[in-house]
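question for whoever is on the cluster today: can someone run the full assembly for these? three chains, 953 residues total. i dont have access anymore since they changed the login thing
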Amino acid sequence: MAEPRESHRWKWLLCAPALTILVLAASGPLLIVLVYSFLTPGNMGGVIWEFSTEGWFRVFFRRDIFDPADVSLNTAHLTILWRSVWLSLQTTVICAVLGFPTAWFIATRPANTRTVWLFLITIPFWTNLLIRTFAIQELIRNSGTINTLLIWAGVIDAPIQMLFSEFAILLGMAYVFLPLMVLPLYAAMDKLDFRLVEAGYDLYASRLQVLRHVILPLVKPGFIAGSILVFIPSIGAYVTPRVLGGGRTLMLGNLIDLQFGQGRNWPLGAALAITLLVIVVAALLFYLRTLNREEGPRHG
Amino acid sequence: MKDTRNSPEIEIAGLSKVFGAGASAFTALSDIDLTIAQGEFFTLLGPSGCGKTTLLRVIAGFEQPSDGSLRINAQEVAGKGPNARPVNTVFQNYALFPHMSVAQNIGFGLKMLGRARSEIDATVDEMLALVQMAHLADRKPAEISGGQQQRVALARALAPRPRVLLLDEPLSALDLKLRKGMQSELKRLQGETGITFVFVTHDQEEALTMSDRIAVMSEGRILQTGTPHEIYHRPRERFVADFIGDTNFLEVEVAEADGAAAQVKLPGGALHSARLPGGLRPGAGARVTVVIRPEQAQLVAPGQGVLAATVEKSVFFGTDTHVHLHLEGGAPFILRRQNTGAMPEPDPGSAVGLALAEGALQVVGD
Amino acid sequence: MAEATGRYAPADRTTVAKPRRRARNFDVRHLPGFGAVAIFTFFMLYAPILILVVFSFNAAPSQAQWGGFSLQWYEAAFNNRQVREVSIRSLWLALVASGIATTVATLAALGTTRVRRFPGQTMIYALINQPLMVPEIVTGVALLIFFAAIKVQTGYTGMGYLVAAHTAFCIPFAYLPIRARLETMDITLERAAADLYASPFQAFRHVTLPLLVPGIVAGFMLGFVISLDAVVITEFVKSAGQDTLPTYMLGQLRRNITPEMNAIATLFLALSLCIVTAFFLLTRKRG
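^ ran it for u. tokens below:
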């Protein structure tokens, strides 16, 4: 283990197999997407190797079919973009509102039962996302459990159309991504020094004041991490809007998919994919900046 | 074993260790010369960061020296890894393998050396008996107490019968009572095995009670090497005197110097003889620092003795009492008296005289 | 401050601050309403899954009515040749992909953990964690484009593409528990082994590897579950006739859904549950 004099070569050698696979089947292809977004679409999908910014242009604008010079904003795309962001933000808020008390509940259980509760939140985290989406679909279908129960109870006469709507997507995303909020929040609360909470009460704070002035500031990093963990898969969601939005209520992921399927416009699809990636990276950078700011002054 | 004693086990010459390079380089050890005899209980003593652990790790082979030579049993070992040296370490946190039983831990070294199964088993049994752990042979390290883990770590390091056993503050994790027990246990083991022990500690009392010889280290250097008695009574440098035991320092003027002894002028003008450390030859009139251990001064009636002082306060310690004084001229002085019950404690503010034992003054370098 | 709070046992404070509830301790961990929200959340998390499971045993072909207990949908699923085929393909793919991913991730973890920082380390981290951050749809599209080109060039349309895509996707999940395990491992244990005459390989074989096994197993199981779950990437990478269980289900969800889907989903859930339970027990034991 005499390290200082050794070169770094063996470290690279150990990493080489993993890096090769990752470059070939993950990172490398991303660069190709960037290249493709600047090419000309082929007639039957694919691309023609000819430089073009049309793909990027069409992300935001649309040309009149008969008069290519007549340019207007592509409201369909912008609507989907906005819906993706808006639904993701709503999902994050719902997860935070439900996730905070849940994480607190787990963190304040006695040590022996805490692991059980934690396990219960972990199970959905590791069970198939498609199956959980399917479970929601079964629940809110016209002939699903909720409508059946409501009709049986006489509350409604005809089933309420819940499936294939923004509401369905929101419900589904909040459902499948909730554990991603609870786990980092729990991790932050687990580290919380409860003597600080005691000190808060000792100095005459009410329950609400302790929550507002002691607990929330201390678990803020967990909040931020959880929000990012929920927001990122939400903005890139594909399965949930496909199953619960039913092809009418699209999100960005479905719009990208469309370009490689029926739309047959690969450069536009590539440009949309890069757009999605930019949003994700922006969210991550925002997260890192907040994290640094949080950690900076606390000890300073 | 006895007849080989005093022939050198470890010989270190001109050894230094520098971490990093350029502007951020840090010299952890500089120009270490040290010889440790066979069968010796040798202690590296010093405050944290003095380089004692680095020196131990260099001997063990975990760090390679930047310069100098290191011979174990007359073999140059610089450049060899820890698995190629007849040296075993008792780690500070024991580093017992958590996935192996006590017996497996103890047998690990012999297994790595490719010894026969029967020999390993026999040695493990012997070691278990030596550290009185035979009844816990099948336990995992997590299932035994801290003191027991300590014994296992010792047995594991002794099992391959190394020439040298290195102990890196092995007692620091134990509470006081266990520590006292383990100190005598270590001495017993060393006597029974005859193995050379190199012991690292920052606890001066531990060093004084256990060692054959001590090296006091500071800032990567060895300041003084000697028996506990020499280190305590004849410190060569102010740091050594200060680090070991309670000490009074006095600034005095040399009246005359003659070889290893000098006459110095104490505050108040009395002359007294003082020993000079080797290498220090101050001329007459030079200002030097002398050390006086608190138990080597005695309270006498005012006007008698060689120093005049005023009592500030007395602090009771059970077996003895520390009398805090101000010498004539203002220098503080602490004196220790055994509580035999015969003498009354002096009143604060009263004037007293101080008599010094013969050979109480030792001149130190700075 | 610590002294001031330490003097008050919670019980004392109750009598001081809230005399009317003399008997109960003032629980500093209590926040009103949180327990109710938490129970509601747990209910919401499990109710849909439980309903799905319950109706897989329904004799009637609809969710609208309960026709008595029956295993007919399980029978139908087992007799469905396509379901059998995609299930076996899914399991095979998950086994192969997570196997490769765990192996390369173990090597990478050994190369990047407990070593002095070296140039390029950040880039390696970024590469390894990239599949965690990039949305699956983007990776899927990227692989579609890349592999389509290779398919045209080589004519090869076998399972290799799916294996590569799944392996890359599993690597970060396999890497994380292995690295975590390595990081918490006391480096002095290997030093002790070296001190006791073990060669570097012996130290790895007798000390590092046995201690690393729980991390490796955990990494393998995470990778396995992740590969089983991966639907978007598979959807974009698969060639004709390479459906896995999730892509098969995704296709079926468009059609008329029979309780046969509930039965398949329930079996799938049971498998995941087994793996997650094993994972949980394995990682918990570490402490």
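summary bc i know u wont read the tokens: Chain A has twelve helices and four strands. Strands of chain A lie at 40-41, 47-48, 61-63, 71-73.
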